[in-house]
């Protein structure tokens, strides 16, 4: 068995599949978002305790996001006697190697939406559009693409909706580059080409603006990104922007608000912009489950970026300390669903079935109301 210290993606793909094992050391969130086919996930902080389970008769290819964190990990494994090599381009290199565009790939992806994923994706997409009146005659919608699985699927769904075209509306597939690394920008553009999505790219300097912000840089970045998207969409003559939030985002937001924010609120299917007159935000993937999106991605062997943020360009997404509150909520919902399979739908329905007669206080148009305001009047009734 040949010894390696590092190996390129092209060299790995030339090996027989039974000669090596890919060990993906990124956290569980990143791994679930996408990985090398057949890879095993052992997060960096758990690798030491898993040494006894690693094969000695195969090449261990250690993979992280971009080949930086995985290099010293591979060296450490070699010191323990393993034949371990660093995948020098990381998962991003693997993605780029797989992004070969042809017309048949795009047609296969479109066919899968209509056939295999008709019930779980297409029907849910059209149900949200009809139930919440998200798309109307004369709309011009900026479909906002971040480069991840959700927004790329949303773009394909809007293309399919345009083919049906029950009434006239327009679509622009909008990508904002807030300061992506060249690798991230290339992956987004190549995926768009592979999927035959005609993107319009515009640039901003948001990453530079928040780079040295210590308190809540992610929150500030998100607010700035949305403002830039609204502004560009309006400049292009759009009256709506579409974001790729899905059903799981909705139920996680409900629980996060209760457990971490002390409030009952939800992620709305559509909103009027408070700063851009005449503009609306819509979420047409509101009823689609994330697992269905993952199945669509994997069925079509598609690979998308997890996070294109400047803060993670040096592989900090491999850092096990980066576990988010949202992931905690995901895990909590998953555990509760094992006991009661209706938990997820009950969380979703809870904000549709609010009984104001049993609420201590609530806010309406920014004004707080208390149940005592009408308590005595009800007694007289």
Low-confidence stretches: 311-323
**Discrete helix count:** 15
Main beta sheet: strand number and arrangement?
Answer: 6 strands, mixed
Looking at how many chains there are and whether they match, the oligomeric state comes to single chain
Computed over alpha carbons, the radius of gyration is 23 Å
Q: Roughly what percent helix?
A: 40-55%
End-to-end CA span: 86 Å
Q: Could you tell me the mean pLDDT? A: 89
Strand content: 5-15%
Class from helix and strand fractions: alpha/beta
Side by side, the strands of the main sheet go 8-7-6-9-11-10
Q: How do you describe this structure in short?
A:
The chain has helices spanning 9-14, 28-33, 70-79, 90-98, 103-114, 118-131, 149-164, 182-194, 206-210, 217-235, 247-261, 290-299, 325-339, 343-350, 375-380, and strands at 6-7, 20-24, 40-41, 59-63, 84-87, 140-144, 170-177, 199-203, 240-242, 270-272, 280-282, 361-364, 367-370. With 381 residues, the protein is α/β, with parallel strands linked by helices. The model is unreliable at 311-323 (pLDDT under 50).
If you had to describe this structure to a student in words, what would you say it looks like?
- With 381 residues, the chain is of the alpha/beta class.
- It is built from 15 helices and 13 strands.
- β7, α8 and β8 (199-203) form a beta-alpha-beta unit.
- The radius of gyration is 23 Å and the shape is globular.
Throw out a few tags for this protein:
six-stranded mixed sheet; alpha/beta; 381 residues; 13 strands
């Amino acid at each position: 068995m040949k010894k390696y210290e590092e190996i390129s993606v092209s060299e790995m793909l030339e090996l027989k599949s039974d000669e090596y094992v890919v060990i993906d050391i990124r956290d569980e969130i990143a791994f679930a978002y996408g990985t090398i086919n057949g890879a095993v996930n052992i997060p960096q902080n758990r690798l030491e305790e898993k040494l006894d389970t690693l094969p000695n008769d195969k090449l261990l290819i250690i993979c992280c996001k971009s080949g930086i964190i995985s290099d010293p990990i591979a060296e450490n494994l070699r010191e323990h006697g393993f034949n371990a090599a660093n995948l020098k381009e990381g998962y991003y290199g693997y993605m780029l190697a797989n992004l070969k565009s042809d017309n048949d790939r795009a047609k296969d992806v479109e066919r899968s939406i209509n056939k295999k994923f008709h019930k779980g994706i297409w029907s849910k997409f059209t149900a949200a559009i009809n139930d919440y009146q998200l798309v109307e005659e004369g709309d011009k919608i900026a479909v906002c693409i971040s480069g991840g699985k959700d927004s790329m699927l949303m773009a394909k769904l809007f293309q399919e909706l345009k083919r049906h075209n029950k009434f006239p509306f327009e679509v622009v597939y909008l990508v904002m580059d807030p300061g992506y690394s060249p690798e991230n920008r290339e992956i987004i553009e190549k995926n768009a080409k592979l999927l035959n999505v005609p993107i319009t790219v515009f640039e901003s300097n948001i990453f530079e603006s928040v780079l040295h912000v210590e308190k809540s840089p992610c929150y500030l970045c998100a607010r700035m990104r949305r403002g830039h998207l609204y502004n560009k969409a309006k400049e292009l003559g759009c009256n709506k922007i579409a974001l790729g939030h899905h059903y799981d985002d909705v139920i996680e937001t409900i629980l996060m608000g209760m457990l971490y924010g002390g409030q009952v609120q939800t992620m709305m299917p559509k909103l009027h912009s408070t700063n851009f007159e005449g503009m609306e935000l819509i979420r047409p993937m509101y009823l689609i489950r994330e697992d269905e999106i993952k199945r669509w991605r994997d069925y079509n062997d598609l690979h998308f970026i997890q996070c294109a943020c400047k803060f993670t360009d040096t592989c900090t997404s491999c850092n096990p300390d980066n576990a988010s509150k949202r992931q905690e909520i995901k895990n909590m919902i998953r555990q509760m669903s094992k006991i009661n399979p209706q938990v997820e739908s009950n969380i979703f329905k809870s904000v549709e079935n609010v009984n104001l007669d049993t609420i201590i206080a609530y806010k309406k148009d920014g004004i707080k109301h208390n149940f005592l305001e009408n308590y005595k009047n009800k007694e007289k009734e």
